[in-house]
Amino acid sequence: MLAMNYRGPRRVRIDHKPDPEILHPEDAVVRVTRSCICGSDLHLYNGSVPDTRVGMTFGHEVCGIVEEVGQDVEKLKVGDHVLVPFNIACGRCVFCQQELYGNCHESNSQATAVGGIYGYSHTAGGYDGGQAEYVRVPYANVGPTIIPEGMHPDDAVMLTDVVPTGYQAAEMGGIQPGDTVVVFGAGPVGIMAARCAWLFGAGRVIVIDHVEYRLEFVKNYAPAEVYNYKELDDVVVFLKQTTDWMGADVVIDAVGAEATGRAMQTLLGKKLHMVGGAATALHWAINSVKKGGIVSIVGVYGPIDTLVPIGNVVNKGLTIRGNQASVKRLLPRLIEHVQNGVLDPKALITHRIPLEEVSEAYKMFSAKLDNCIKPVLIPPSARV
User: Fold this and answer.
1) Residue 97: beta bridge partners?
2) Full domain range(s) for residue 336
3) Among 306, 334, 332, 312, which Cα is nearest to 251's?
4) Which residue of 30, 76, 233, 348 pairs with 64 in a disulfide if CB–CB is 3.0 to 4.6 A?
């Protein structure tokens, strides 16, 4: 099969790899119809996530047709068109029983934190992802969800990560009616977090980024107030000033390990990889939220130490919440929102690119060329 092949930092190519096989009675093999490149894939691409091994296939946002099922798979049949949540979850462990599917203990049993994730380095289990013609899907009775009749595949693939992650970012903020919500990052997840903040009753939504076309997009899509931090003397002072010097009620970090904006964080976290990422957005979040406020983190950071002002967290009495989105828990509600027109996920997709051009797609998305918000890869069989 054709599959994306990671060859080292900033080097990916299309290659031929063996077709996946059923390795366990609860496995399925899915023929991919859509797979996205995620902003968190860029952390892998740029070498920011430990133990990302040469030869790996990325891709944790996938939908496709069931081609084969193991003998213990009861909830799927060959021919079903399914969306595959990025969490690989067993459905049985103590964490899955709490609906913490992003922390499944069985799918990544060597880890103490995250569960298994498709195509996301060996820190997340070492599973190959779906930027390919086919993908092996473990625990096929648990994660894959049949796409409702009439739902566009572009909407379905966005329900595997972007929509639930943005929604959970707002949910973890504990937004109360009338709250001021600040979102750092106008990538797809930040855009969706800003849109979903209104669903929880926000009275004001502000988005901070430095890429003008992304700010223009979220201003219209969310809609939200938008500010380019490069045009502000001090981001934190500005946000205090615009909130009557109180600070925002809720701040969402949708940036993660490769934030720009502070020279020391950039040097240590992005250039030298001495810490688990450049925590600039997290600094700004902690310092611009009000006393007693909530910081919600969905931006990806590495597992090693990260430089954050923990003293300010304690002295301000902040609540910090973060996790990988529990896609399976959120899907029923989010499917309803899409079907009712409350959310329009496919509007974020700006580029539909043949799988064979995966290298060019990564370069474009990483460099923020051609006003790219969200690229989707289409395998040959899905273009017929």
Assistant:
1) none
2) 2-161+326-383
3) 312
4) 30
Q: Is the pLDDT of residue 69 over 90?
A: yes
Look-up: residue for tokens 């798979």? 73
User: Which amino acid, 123?
Assistant: T
- The verdict on pTM exceeding 0.85 is yes
The pLDDT, as a whole number, for residue 272 is 59
Work out the burial of residue 141: count CB atoms within 10 Å of its CB; fewer than 13 is exposed, 13-18 middle, 19 or more buried.
middle
**Which alpha helices (DSSP H) does the chain contain, by range?**
39-45, 94-97, 153-158, 162-172, 188-199, 212-221, 235-241, 263-265, 280-288, 310-316, 327-339, 358-367
Written as one string, the DSSP assignment of 233-293 is S-HHHHHHHTTTTS-EEEEEE---TB--S-HHHIIIIIIS--SSSB-HHHHHHHHHEEEEE
- Residue 25 to residue 73: CA distance in whole angstroms: 7
Q: How many CB atoms lie within 10 A of CB 147?
A: 21
> What gap in Å lies between CA 79 and CA 82, rounded to an integer?
9
Three-class SS state of 372: coil
The pLDDT value given to residue 215: 98
Q: How many domains does the chain have?
A: 2
Residues 199 and 313 in one domain: yes
DSSP per position, 68-94: EE-TT--S--TT-EEEE-SEE--S-SH
Last residue of a domain, one of 322, 339, 355: 322
**The two three-digit tokens of residue 163, written as one number:** 């929509």
Q: What is the pLDDT of residues 94-131, one digit of tens each?
A: 999 999 999 999 999 888 889 999 999 899 999 999 99
| CA separation for the pair 145, 132 (Å, rounded) | 19
Region for residue 135 given its phi and psi (left: phi exceeds 0; alpha: psi -120 to 50; beta: otherwise) = beta
* The domain boundary residue, chosen from 301, 322, 343: 322
The one-letter amino acid at 232: L
Task: Calculate mean pLDDT across residues 5-12.
Answer: 96
Which of 288, 257, 87 has the alpha carbon at shortest distance from 187?
A: 257
